[in-house]
Every structure is written in structure tokens, then in C-alpha cells.
Amino acid sequence: MLSSVNPKDFEMKMLEAQEFDDDFVLFLRKEIFGTDEKHEADGVKVMPQFGKQEAVKHELQRNDCWSDEMESNLKTEDQGVYCVAQKSDCTLLLLFGWIPDDLFCKSRLRDTATYVLRFLTCLSPDMVCCLSSEDVKLLDRAVSSMNSNNLDAWRSFSVAFHVERQEEQRDGVLCEKLGSILLPMDSSPQNLRLLKGSYPAYSVVEPAPATKCKESHIQRFDNVSEFASWLINESKQRNLRLDFGIMGPDHFCNVLLKTTGRWPEKELKDVKDMLERSLQTSLEQSMDRVQTYIEEHRATLLSYMESLFDLDVLYKGAKDEPAFVTLNKYVQEVQSDRSIWSKLGTSTQVTLNLPLRLKNQMKAIASTFRDGLANGSDKDVAESLAVFIREFTVLDTKIETDNDGFFGRVWKKVWPRDQESEFLSDKFRECMAEPLNAARQAWFQSIETALAIADGVLLKRWSEETQQSLRKSCQADEHKVISEAFDNLLLTWRGQHEGDLMTTVHPRVRQMAIFCDVEKEQWKPATDQLKIFKLVQNDNGDFSSVELGTHRLNPGAAILKAFTIKNHCIVLVTTSPKGTLVERVDFPLQRSWWGEKIGKVSFTRSFGRPVSLCDFNVDERLVAFVEEGGRVVLYRFNETFSSLEIYKRLELSLRTSLTLPVAGVLLVDGSLYATDTSGSIQSVNLKNQQTSRAVQIMPSGSCEPGSSLFAMADNMVLGFVGEPKSEDSAENSECVELFAVASEDFRTVPVNYSGNVALRSKGLCVQSFDDVVFAVNEKRKKICVCRLAVTVRSESLRIQHSKEHSVNGSKTESDGLEGDENHHWLRAFYHTDVISEPTKESCRYFFQVMMRDLRKLNKPLGGMDFARDLAFSTESNAGRDNVAALPVRSFLQELITFVPIQICRAEANSLTVMTNGKATPMDTQSQNLQAVDIARSIRFGLLSPLLESWQGRCIVITSMGKQSTGKSYLLNHLTGSSFAIAGARCTDGAWMSIRILPKNVLLVVLDFEGLGSFERTEQEDVFLSILNASISMFTIFRMEMRFDKEIDVLFARFQKGVALIKGDPSLFRGKLYMSVKDVNPNDQKGV
Questions:
Q1: Can you tell me the distance from the alpha carbon of 384 to that of 369, in angstroms, rounded to the nearest whole number?
Q2: Are 574 and 715 in a shared domain?
Q3: 487/479 Cα distance (integer angstroms)
Q4: Residue 775, strand partner residues
Q5: Crossing angle for the helix pair 250-259 and 426-495, to the nearest 10 degrees
Q6: Are residues 191 and 129 in the same domain?
Q7: How far is CA 670 from CA 617, 673, 684, 687, in A?
Q8: Three-state DSSP class for 798?
Q9: Are 742 and 645 within one domain?
């Protein structure tokens, strides 16, 4: 399937896996899930290997499976499950887990290591556990501790715990200089601002002179006269330019010329006079033309008349004789002209081609005459010949003789004789003289009749054609005169006011009305303009600035904030006495031909009330506007930043204890951080409006209005600029430096510097992007670029099992052993290269204890016994022959269906569909506006080809319930799926897993996020409920042993969502199953 594809194309992202979905579906349908059973016999041996990296590598080297390519490319941090294929009689797949050694410690053993082990055991019933010599020693110590006398009976009935504090990591921010960007010497750093957003940039405000601009609007007119009157009035005040486009000016020019008094009446009268004179001479010219035509044809035909009725020519002449050719051409010409031919009588039409017919029948006539002489008198035969010629002249008759036909022609060739002398006898010539003369006269008369009729027809036709041509020429001359007059009018309108403003009109007609796109030039007064520079890192690691373009501000507008979006756009917020204006400015990617890069405003939104502060979260597309009274209004952009809708309102005066007005705000991670002039900071959660306590992070009066907060280290640390607490001199009293606090509790995070870097200067302006911070040094006129290394203090506490083996709490020496049997990772099948008899006995006892602990869980084990199936071998290829071959079908089913995938997520009051378990980029979402495009973009990894290829029965089972009620745990035990489980919230959105049951049944298992949590809004819960109800055939509602108000609210939201899709026949009709947990045996009947 992929034989023609270069594997490096996937690495370079030139190909994607979904491009081969159709091939993979066909492969699954025919080769794996087909009706034939031939693949049950074909199998593959799977030998999983599990352990630490050094032990796994050693085992692969012993099996000659560790190549030079693996040595150079497989790094310690490249964790995952890898495969090495060996082909012999049966294909052998060596699967091995490659995970760091720190994942085998006690605190992390149940996470990645357990998941990898479960994945490997699902693919094969056999397992090789690779141990090092240290692991064997640890195993012996663990078995020794099991055999000690410390296993008192009371430990089966009591448990001791202690609280353990995890190792603390100190707070700190370390700045390391990466480079600097010099600013132009003529620039003023006081006007420079670093911009927040999707890419680093800074802005500079410069004065802009007065210039012309264009204002566009649409104007409607009911008729052309009204449009002409408006144009005349407009032309008196401004220069006017009309652009008719592909429609042309014909619809308007007559009315405009007449309305303006520029109608070319004299020129049009001259054109009409010329037409009258031409029409008078056209009739005489047509008569002369017709007369010439008639005379030419009459003379030509009369010149051939003797030849046409000559007896010798008629009998012996060839068909290509000029006389016959000319006559035939003329007859066809008359026949093709229906106007002439239809006016000729039938006899005249027949007589016209009389010579041609005589030519064809002359031999038959001569033959008949000869036969008549033999059977009758000469007089009777002569009279019969004369009568026949008269009738033949006006009737198209034909004489049949014995010599005609096939036998006659054969007889002439077999028995030739002198027919000419026999047929063209003197007697025949004498009898044909008078009939031919009469036929000649009749033919000449028909020619005269045809020419006479052609005279009248052609005269009328050619006269009309000439007049029509003259009138068309006149119309063209009139149109040219009118066009020249109209062009002169437009030229006059365009330049009649020298150096004045221009109005451009683009008219278009819709039925009777006229709609005009009017562009008017206006003078823009002198104001300020915003110039944007993008900060980029070159290939050599140096930083530089690239000018994106300029944007002219409205007169009297002051810049509040500017934010970068996409790759070359900004969102600009300005204030003026009229209110607040939000604009999206797109800068061109290439410089124009006149050398300027002027931004284009693609979106604008104005608000009637001015604001004092604002902030923008580019990831969530949220904009917060803060008024002086403490009122905060949040708006959200759509995915294409082309519309702005209100999101939420917040009153800081009611929710916080800050002193109004606030000095700065920051939007990050669904929270709004605000500072006041006294140096205090407080945060408000936007979803539940929970408020943190106010903490003073700066001295009172040191925080000025408009000072900027910024987030660092995945929003765990907040940075700001403030004055130091103590200064030695008056010169340094104006200097400010960088401070940092933790976003969780606003504790101070110390800021340190590597080398001689110190972000401390007068007028310091700082902004961060990921782990890079940009700071403007006003004194040196440069921008310093530093890398931040942020560490945040972690104080997690864990409850650990205390190894107390006596009632008084004293500990024995064996308590300090690291190898506790309940936590060690060796509770699995294993294999080692050096093993002794005592070690074998230790291993057997170890697995016996393991099986004892498993049986205490009271779970069905299906006859599993690790100690019974334990085997020991030391050869390099040990166990390969004993490994049973698995059917390819079963192996691929387990490989594809083991890992669940996320299919959707509820966020921002909407339901986001995931593609291959990942969120779709915003540019792709903006392109998928139609339902067909959205459906085509949905893909659930390898599960999508499996679903498309399945042709058997399909069952969909889903979970529903409150948060943290064990929904994922129940589905895992019920269906054998692998959903993540935890004591707290762990399911985000909806996840899908597939299990293949016996009797050709596909079980689609969907694990949904718990409802009713404070992280989700009511609308998001309704969306999840709608999706659950629409696709589920069997819904398990997981609940605790009570029916409280929260359950009632969940069902109310569920019913609200179901009502939206009620009555759709294409959806499933599922069943709802109530699963109640922790039911007391005495209450089972009541439940």
C-alpha cells in the first residue's frame, strides 16, 4: 500500500496519514474483516519486552535486534513503544517499551509504566521482563522481607499512614541575555511601546501631515434624470470621474448630454442629411447592377444556344461541354434562390433544363425512332416523334428501351456495332429538325421569363440591402458623434476644478433604479500615525526588526493599546471624546510600488463610552474594557477576527476591594487580574466570579495608571515594572526594574540575572513571549532580549503507607527497604540472563505472594496464575519457539483499538470537534463553514478507517453523570477499555474507544465528561448532553446512593438538550441505565 511512498515525506510533513484512509479501509475490509478465514491460519509471533532502558537494550543486543541506526537515533528521552521485525518461517515482532528509568519509581509507577505494560499485555499473552543485576538483588531483598517475622496478624486488619511532603522547588526567575536590537538614533523611546499578542512587535507614534483620503458610500436614484441632475450639481463643486465598468455608458449618455445642454444636434443633422442623399442614389445603383446581371446571363446563354440544341452535340457530346456546364450552373443558381424559383411556373421550371434532359434521353429517342421505322410507316413515326418532343419540352418524362439496363449494356459490349450511323440516319435528322427548333424557342422563352422575374426580385433585394447598410453606417456615425460628445463631457468634468478633490462614481442599473458606488476624496487633517515593527530572530540567532507598515489615526484619537494577531495584523484600541474605537488593521506582506506599506482596516467597532484601560487575550480572543468607575465589559472575537460580540460584564467595585480607578488589568487563563494605584493586586475568575484576596505587591503610589502586567511560564508567574524599595541617589530614583509574583497567591518571586544583564532603567517597558522577554532601554536606545528560566515553588503533600510492624509504632530494620512488594515494578513476567536456583525460588515465591494479593481483591481472574505459568531460560533466543503465533486479525484489532482518542471538547459555550485527537487550528476552522466541510474534516485517528471498513453490527454505549463518580472506571471494567481514571476530574470533553466482541459485533464506547462541574457552564453541559443523547444506544448514568438537587438539575439540562433534537428519525433511540454506586446490601431492594 505504501511501497511507492518515501518515509521521509511523513517527517517533512509532505504527507499525512489520512491521505491513505481509503487504502487502509479497503485493506481492513478485505484482508482483515473479510468473510474468508484464510487469515486465521496466517499468524505473527509477538514477543513484548518490558523493563528499564539499559536492560531492554541489553536484551535486544543479545537477540541481534539492536542496529546502528537505533543506536544513533533512539535517545533516552524518546519514550514510547517500538517494534523490531524479524522474518523467518513466521514473522516475529519484538515489541519493547522505551521509557525513562525515573518512571519506575514508586510515586510514578502507576502512570506511564503501567499503561505501557497493559498495552503490551493486550498485544500478546507472553511477556519478557528485562532485569538488571540490581533488580535481582532488590527482588531477593523483597522476598526476604516477606519471609520475616514482621508479618503480624494485626496487619490484615489495620493500616497506618503518614503525611509526606514532596521535595520543594524554590521560586525564581533567571534572566539570560540573548541579544539586543538597536533603535534608530532619531527615534524617541518615550513613544515606543512593546505590543502584546501572537508575535513580538513594537509601535512608534509619529506625526502625519494632511493628506487625501477616500470615503465610500452607496447612493440610489430612481431614474436616469435624477441621476443626471445629481451629477451636474456635483460637477459644479468637485472634479467628477465616471467609471461605468463593463456595463458601458450607453444607458446614461443621451440623458446626460441633453440635461447638460451638450447634445450634438448639428452633427447628428449632418449625418441624417448624408443618409438621405445616399438613399436617393442607392436605387439607381441597384437598377444598374441588376441590369448588368441580366445582360451578362442572357448573353452567355444565347451564345451556347446553338450548341445546346445541336443534334450531334446532344448525341455525341460529353457532359463537361462548356455549354452544358454553364447551363447547369445557372439552373442551380436559380433553384437556390427561393424568391425567384417559387415564382416560376412548373412548365417553366422543367423547360429551363431542357437541353440537359435532351442530352440524357437522345440515345433513347434515336433507338425508339429506329424501332418505330421497322414496325410502322415513316409518316406516323415522324408525327409521333414531334408529339413526344412537344410533351418532353414541358414534362419531365423518360423513355425506356431494351438497350437500357444491365442486359442492354452487356449486349453493347459483347456485340458492338456502328450505332451512330444506324441511329443518326438522315431520316432521323429530318424528323428531328422541326421539333428541335420548337424546343429551342420554348427554352429561350423560359430563359426570358426567369430573367424577367429575377429582374424584379433582385432589384428589390439589392435595394433593401443597400439601404439597410446605409442606415447602419448612419447609426454608427451617430453613435460615434454622441460618444465623442460624451467623452468631451467626462473630460471636462474630470479637470474643470484644478487641484481640487475628485469624486469617483461607479453606477450600475438594477431594473429601473440606479445604484452608485461613490468615492469622494477628502482632506485628512494633520494627525499622528502608528508605525509597527515586528521583532524576528534570524537563522544565526540574532534579533532584528522588520517594518510591517503604518496606520493613520483619526484626528483627536489617543492610542489606548495595540495587540498583535495572526502574522501581520494588529488590533488597535483608541479613545477620543466620541468614545472608544476598536480596529483590526492588516498590513501588506509586500511593499507597494511607491514604497509605502499602509495598513488596511478590515474590521471596526465603535463604542459610545470612553474606557480607561483594556487588555486582550489572543488565545481566547477576549477583549476586556475597563471604565473609570470599575465596570468591566468583555467581548469575544470570532475565529477570523471579523466580528465582536459581548461575552460578560463585571463590576470591580462590587467584586474586589481595590481602590478605584484601577491602574492595570491582565486577561489570562479565564481570570482577570487588576492592580490599583496603591500597589495592590486582585484576581477575579470570569466563569464563577470567585475573587482572590488582595495583596500589596508594590509600595503605595509606585504603580501608575496604565502600567502593564504580563504573564510568564505558562501563566504561573506575573511580571510587572515598578520602582525599587530603596534608592541611593536622586538619579536612580526615576529608574524602574522588573518584578515578579506568583499568579496563584501573589507571593514574591525573586528575579535574578545571569552575567551583567540588569533590566533596570528609566522608562523601562517589558513584554514577554513564551520564555523570551523584550525590554526597552530608554537610555541606550535599544531593546534587550533575554531568555527567562522560571521555577515555581511546589508543596504537594502525599499520604503514604507507614511501615509500622508493631503496636507501639517502632520500626524494624526491614522497614527501610526500598523493595516493598506492593510498590515494586517487578510484579510482572521477567527474564534475566544470569539466574540461579535460589533466585528461581525467590521468583516463584514472589509471584505466589502477588497472586495471593490479587485474589484478595475478589475480582474474576479467569484462571490466571503467574506462579504456575512461570518459565526460566537463559539462551539468547529463549522462548521464541514456545511463543504461539497470533492471528493477524487479532493482533491488528488490539493494536488499533487499545488507545482511546478525544473526539470533542466543550469550551467557550461551544462544542469543538477534535481532529485526530487535537484541536483544529483557527485558520482551518474559518474555512470549514459548511456542514460538508466540517464532516470531511472529522477524523478520529486509526479508528476512522476501522469504522468505515466495518460491515457488521455496531453498538454505541456512553457514560453520563456527575463529576468524579467513577464513569471511566466503570466503562473500563465493563468493556475492557483504557480510559484514564483518577480520584479527581480527569476526563475532558468526550473520548472514544472501540472494542470488537464475538459474533462480529463492534462496540463503540464513549466516555463523557462529568456534568455539573464549576469549570463548565450550563450551555456547555447542554451541548455534551445533546451529543450524548443523539449518538448513544445505551447510556449508563452513574450516580451515588442519593438523588439530590444536583441530579435533578442534570436531568433538567439533559431534557432541555433532548428537546432540541426531538423527532429526528436519523438519530438513535437509546436506553438509559441507572448505575448506583456504594449501595448497602440492605437497601438493594429499595433501590
A1: 9
A2: yes
A3: 12
A4: 766, 784
A5: 60
A6: no
A7: 9, 10, 9, 7
A8: strand
A9: yes
